């Protein structure tokens, strides 16, 4: 998957504003997010979506010392206490990027200007539950079965089934010896990139260009292309690094991806250590592993 910049910032601010992608802030809990669109802020929960027009927002306030949350304060007449909602994000940089984008959209008001009741502009709609992804479930089942097979071989070897232990060694060589260097370095790089996206990434909306390619606009108004994906939807969520240190990705699944990346790295490192120990054992270890009774 690659991400390439295709256009610089436009000199016409209105053109950038029209083309800007929706900015998405994943919530601290699963199913919660804030979505900044052209003229409204959408607060999503697992049960409903709350749409707040930008004109109904008085100000935003940063919360906590960690700055991983903010409050949206609505407009209200002087005689009414303003309504506010709290939004919590996963990382301070993502929250800061989102609030900066929201702040730029807020209208400039005079302190003496009368305010309307912003709650009258807010609408709420129920959320339809999406179906479970069959492809993701099938992948997890396949990986689980593969690891269970290796665990069964190792258990059989420990319990005295000598032939199964040799089979396990052959399985390790066949599965990990040739791509070992790629797995160790690739696993570490995968872990590092996923961790950075999780803590510094910004989520925006991407538009489909053609099969496997999407276009998105970053917070600075630059247009990028993300290619090499397996998605086919017209619109997708794209998580990208504002500093460009790592590749963008389709979707926000950093938790599962990070766990998988760490697992791949640890398995690769363990396999590398085991193969080095086996190599250092020399002819004596080989004579014990290769038994004439196996032929």
Automatic annotation (TrEMBL):
Source organism superkingdom: Bacteria
TM spans (from-to): 141-159, 165-188, 257-281
Keywords: Membrane, Transmembrane, Transmembrane helix
Entry protein name: Uncharacterized protein
Organism field: Streptomyces griseomycini
């Amino acid at each position: 998957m690659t991400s390439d910049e295709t256009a610089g910032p436009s000199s016409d601010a209105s053109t950038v504003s029209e083309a800007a992608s929706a900015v998405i802030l994943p919530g601290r809990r699963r199913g919660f997010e804030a979505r900044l669109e052209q003229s409204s802020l959408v607060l999503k929960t697992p049960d409903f979506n709350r749409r707040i027009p930008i004109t109904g927002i008085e100000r935003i306030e940063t919360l906590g010392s960690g700055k991983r949350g903010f409050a949206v304060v609505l407009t209200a007449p002087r005689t009414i206490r303003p309504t506010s909602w709290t939004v919590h994000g996963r990382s301070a940089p993502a929250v800061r990027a989102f609030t900066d984008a929201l702040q730029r959209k807020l209208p400039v008001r005079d302190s003496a200007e009368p305010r309307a009741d912003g709650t009258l502009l807010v609408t709420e709609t129920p959320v339809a539950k999406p179906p479970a992804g069959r492809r993701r479930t099938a992948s997890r089942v396949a990986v689980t079965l593969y690891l269970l097979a290796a665990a069964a071989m190792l258990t059989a070897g420990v319990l005295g089934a000598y032939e199964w232990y040799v089979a396990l060694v052959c399985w390790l060589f066949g599965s990990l010896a040739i791509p070992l260097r790629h797995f160790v370095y690739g696993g570490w790089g995968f872990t590092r990139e996923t961790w950075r996206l999780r803590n510094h990434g910004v989520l925006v909306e991407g538009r489909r260009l053609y099969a496997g390619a999407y276009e998105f606009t970053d917070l600075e108004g630059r247009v990028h292309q993300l290619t090499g994906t397996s998605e086919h939807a017209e619109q997708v969520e794209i998580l990208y690094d504002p500093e460009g240190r790592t590749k963008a990705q389709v979707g926000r699944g950093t938790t599962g991806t990070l766990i998988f990346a760490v697992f791949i790295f640890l398995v690769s490192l363990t396999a590398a250590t085991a193969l080095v120990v086996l190599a250092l054992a020399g002819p004596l270890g080989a004579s014990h592993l290769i038994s004439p009774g196996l032929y």
